[in-house]
Amino acid sequence: MSGHSKWSTIKHKKGAADQKRGAIFTKLAKAVTVAAQNGGADPETNFTLRLAVDKARAANMPKDNIERAIQRGVGGDKSDALDDVVYEGYGPGGVAVMVEATTDNRNRTAGQVRSVFTKHGSSLGESGTVAWQFNRRGTIAVPAAGIDPDELVMAAIDAGALDVEPDDEYVTVYTEVADFQKVKQALEAAGYDAGDAELAMVPAVLMALDPGKQLQVLKFIEVLEDQDDVDQVWTNAEISDEVAEQYAQS
To answer: Which domain holds residue 68?
Structure first.
C-alpha cells in the first residue's frame, strides 16, 4: 500500500477525527473557502469545491458551517484571502516529504513547519527539492467491505483509472488528474462509495526503512498534520502492515 493511503488507514484506526473534531472542522472549512475562492460557489461546476464539501459532510460538519466557508471564499474581502502553499524537505531516515498547507499568513505557517522539521532532526528544503519524486494523482479509497474487489478493479479500469491497489480495508483507485472527476462519477454511478477522494502526491518509488525509522516517520507526519495550517503530508516512506498496526494502537 502506498504511504499516503496507509497513513489514512492509521488515522481511521486511531480515531483522530473524533478526538480532534474542532481542528478537523477548521481545516475542512479552509479547504471549502479556498475552493470557492478559486472556482466559484457552485459545487456542480466547481469540482474542487464539490470534493471539499463532500469531505466536510463526511466529517459531519454542520451545513451552516459549510455555507459560511463558501461565502467567505466568494465574499470578495481580500483581507480574508487564503493561499495554498507547499513545503518540501527530508524527514526521518532521509525520506522525501511534501507538506500542503492553507494559510492567511505565510511567515507564520513556514515557521511552524520549519520548527517541526528541526525538532525531528529533519531538513526543510527549497521548492523542487523532492517534488520530482512524486506524481500528482487523483485517488479514490473505496471501502473493501461488502464489495467484490475484482469487479471494482474492472469498473475502475473501464472508467479510465491508471491503477487499482486492493487492500483488506480499502481499494485505492489512482487516476490522472484530468480523469479524476470522470472516474469518481463512474464509480458512484456503479454504486460504489467513492466519497473518500482527493488529489494526492503519490511517490514514484517507495523508500524502505527499518521499523524504528518507520515509527519515527509516522510520528513526524502526525505532528506535522497537527499544525493548524497543514492540510496534508505526503512521503515516500514504505510502511509495513505490522508497523502501521502498532502505531494505530499506540
So the answer is: 3-80
For residue 17, the domain's CATH number is 1.10.10.200
pLDDT at position 233 is 93
Residue 30 falls inside a structural domain: yes
pLDDT digits (tens, 9 = 90+) for 157-171: 999 999 998 887 888
In a domain, 92, yes or no: no
Query: Following DSSP, what letter does each residue of the chain receive, concatenated?
Result: --HHHHHHHHHHHHTHHHHTHHHHHHHHHHHHHHHHHHH-S-TTT-HHHHHHHHHHHHTT--HHHHHHHHHHHHS--GGG--EEEEEEEE-GGG-EEEEEEEES-HHHHHHHHHHHHHHTT-EEE-TTSSGGGEEEEEEEEEE-TTS-HHHHHHHHHHHT-SEEEE-SSEEEEEE-GGGHHHHHHHHHHTT----EEEEEEEESS-B---HHHHHHHHHHHHHHHTSTTEEEEEE-B---HHHHHHHHT-
| pLDDT (tens digit per residue) in 129-151 | 999 999 999 999 999 899 998 99
- Label residue 17 by pLDDT band (50, 70, 90): very low
